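Progress against Task 2.4 (sequence-to-structure conversion) is shown through the following example record, which the project officer requested during the mid-term review.
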Amino acid sequence: MKTDRAKMTANSFSLVSAGCFLTHLLWGRATVDGLVDELLAVQPATTTGYHSTEMTTANTTYGESTLPFACGNNSHRCTEICNFCSEMYGAPTMDCLSTLLSHLCVSTFESSMVSLNSTDRCIWGNVRGLYSNLSLCTEEMSDCLLIPWPNPLVEDTFVDIHSRFFKDCPTEEHGDPPPVVMFALVMTPICLIPVMVSLVVLKTMNGDDS
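Structure tokens generated for the chain above:
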């Protein structure tokens, strides 16, 4: 009887523990989404000054939080970005950068590309602004976290973008130049050879006469 009660107690404790763990995971996911939403509420930064050497030193207090690591100062969003990585990841890790790129850069690009069909996506004038904004966004996130840009994560992001949105776009193949151009390129050095030989002979003869 006591054994059955012990088993029931253990099972109840396991269920409670599992419920608490699941609640913790759901709360963590909601916290990440909430903090990312707060970052989305901040207007995008200007496109100048990305390679400034200025940075905010570690252990500087921003409002109520103290960052344990150095934070970039190239954008007005750097404070929020660094605070997000500090709260969720404890440091400016590549995992944090991946989350930021996914929520703040790629999602904006994707939502804009949805309105374009496969033909319009292949016209550079239609996507130039979107592509440029995506590049600047990845650079801003990396610079705020003082992670070198470009980096493998950013490169993988663009490879994924190209494979999803531009894989059907035709590529221009560079063939041989027209026959007239080929003839001129071939004949020019051939015609110069006799001229150069004649000049050498004349120079030699003048030298012997002197």
